[in-house]
Amino acid sequence: MPPDPLHDRLVRPLTIGIAGGTASGKTTVARRLVERLAGHPIAFLDQDSYYRDLSDTPLDERRAFNFDHPDAFDTDLFVSHIAELQAGRAIQKPIYSFTAHSRTAESVHVSPGDALIIEGILVLSLEPVRKLLDVKVFVDSDDDVRVLRRLSRDIKERGRDFDGVMEQYFRTVRPMHLGFVEPSKRYADIIIPHGGNNDIAIEMVAGALRQKMR
Fold first, then answer.
1. Long-range pairs for 165-173: beta carbons < 8 A, 24 or more residues apart
2. Which of 24, 30, 56, 141 has the fewest beta carbons under 10 Å from its own?
3. Burial of 155 (C-beta count, 10 Å sphere; 0-12/13-18/19+)
4. Residue 1 has what pLDDT?
5. Do the Cβ atoms of 194 and 149 come closer than 8 Å?
6. Mean pLDDT in the chain?
């Protein structure tokens, strides 16, 4: 019997991609959408977990690595895990250590759900990922706000110092944002301004998703 495209659309979980610049509020938006979709099992994948494993690279070289370029990610694994969850099969999501700049030996079990939310700076930029998405969201936030948020996060949560964070920002983060992240905004179905604090926009997106999941 030939495949039924309509049946596939009904069975396949609604797949939402959330992109945006570093520290723009993507994770906050994703978490709030999960909260607003209570009653539906939601699978969640963060692109940060899919950085390439650099454990065989000297630590000094890892620190100088360009983590904001598309080549920094194991996109093949990322895409295969998205496809597995869309097919209704669980996956083991890798865990990445931002202090050691390498993948750990542990993993996280992720079960499929009614919806799959994917979050990351290059989710809309990478075509193999983008073509698997049903809804494409871009979280927009002012550059100065993003810089301050990243500075605070990297110092408090990732063991960095001020000079190191700023050096990395100007060397790789800002150029890659201008080259890859910001241009991917044109692929978005929905743009959420003001980051994760825009409750009105988040509620509107959640309402649209609830309608699609009925």
1. 172/66, 172/67, 172/68, 172/69, 173/22, 173/68
2. 56
3. middle
4. 44
5. no
6. 91
Environment class of 15 (CB within 10 Å of its CB; exposed 0-12, middle 13-18, buried 19+) = buried
Contact 111, 90 (CB under 8 A): yes
Token readout for 93 is 């999501």
Which pair of tokens denotes residue 47?
């692109």
Evaluate whether residue 50 is within a structural domain. yes
Distance CA 177, CA 11 (A): 35
% pLDDT > 70, the chain: 95
Residue identified by tokens 């698997």 is: 132
Tokens of 126: 């990478």
- Give a yes or no: residue 214 inside a domain: no
Within a 10 A sphere around the Cβ of 63, how many other Cβ atoms?
Answer: 15
| CATH number of the domain that residue 82 is part of | 3.40.50.300
Distance in angstroms (rounded) separating the CA atoms of residues 124 and 181:
8
Name the residue range of residue 132's domain.
5-209
What pTM did the predictor assign? Answer: 0.89
Q: Give the chain's domain count.
A: 1
Reduce the DSSP state of residue 192 to 3 states and report it. strand
Residue type, 27: T
Alpha carbon 185 to its chain's center: 14
The pair of structure tokens assigned to 80 is 């295969």
Q: Which two tokens stand for residue 3?
A: 């495949």
C-alpha count within 13 angstroms, C-beta hemisphere, residue 205: 28
pLDDT band at 96 (very low <50, low <70, confident <90, very high): very high
- What is the C-alpha to C-alpha distance for residues 152 and 99, in angstroms, rounded to an integer? 15
